[in-house]
């Protein structure tokens, strides 16, 4: 039980920070940057969000496992196989899966922010980085905090990845531990209840 609690919190915290940073980057690209393919950048988080987490995790297993497609094609070095099914690989998959939440939250905050303060600072001679750190950053802080909390909670409750990648990699997490305790015969109510 102790390992699954520790693993779950490590995974949730690392994923919450990484997905919020990546989703925030996408939100800024879609809202504030004039880049080619801006419409695709705005639609991509929706495509990822609408795909079930179980399918994303299953695709990861089929690609990166020792007998997976990349290994069969010779594109997966032997030394990296363990990396993909340990904490860094799980964080990577969860980040790619959950960055749309951060993109939606931070993007909505950016859309409602307006550009008046930014324009005033620019007229006063402030550098772009200073504008982001001193004006936009503090105004977006509630959206960033909400994104971190929502992603943290989603990772803790996600069963799709727990039943595929975490189980295959022997990386115990709470959701799969509850399932395993409740699906065995006889049902271990004490273990399931302790992890819930």
List keywords for this structure.
mainly alpha, single chain, globular, 79% helix, 0% strand, 196 residues
Question: Which descriptor suits the 3D outline?
Answer: globular
Q: What structural class do the secondary elements suggest?
A: mainly alpha
The share of residues in helices is: over 70%
**Spans of at least 5 consecutive residues with low confidence:** none
Mean pLDDT: 83
How many distinct beta strands? Answer: 0
Q: Approximately what portion of the residues adopt beta-strand conformation?
A: under 5%
Q: Tell me the series of helices and strands, N- to C-terminal.
A: HHHHHHHHHHH
- Biggest sheet architecture: none
Radius of gyration: 20 Å
What count of helical segments does DSSP give?
11
Our measurement of the CA-to-CA distance between the termini, rounded to an integer number of angstroms, reads: 10 Å
């Amino acid at each position: 039980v102790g390992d699954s609690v520790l693993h779950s919190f490590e995974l949730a915290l690392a994923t919450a920070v990484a997905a919020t940073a990546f989703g925030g980057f996408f939100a800024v690209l879609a809202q504030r940057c004039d880049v080619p393919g801006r419409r695709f950048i705005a639609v991509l988080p929706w495509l990822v969000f609408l795909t079930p987490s179980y399918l994303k995790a299953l695709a990861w297993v089929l690609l990166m496992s020792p007998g997976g497609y990349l290994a069969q094609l010779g594109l997966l070095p032997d030394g990296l196989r363990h990396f993909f099914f340990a904490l860094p690989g799980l964080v990577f998959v969860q980040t790619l899966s959950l960055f749309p939440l951060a993109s939606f939250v931070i993007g909505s905050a950016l859309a409602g922010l307006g550009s008046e303060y930014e324009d005033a600072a620019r007229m006063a001679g402030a550098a772009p980085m200073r504008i982001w750190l001193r004006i936009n950053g503090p105004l977006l802080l509630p959206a960033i905090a909400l994104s971190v909390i929502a992603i943290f909670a989603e990772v803790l409750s996600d069963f799709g990845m727990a039943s595929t990648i975490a189980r295959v990699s022997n990386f115990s997490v709470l959701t799969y531990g509850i399932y395993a305790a409740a699906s065995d015969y006889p049902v271990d109510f004490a273990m399931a209840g302790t992890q819930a």
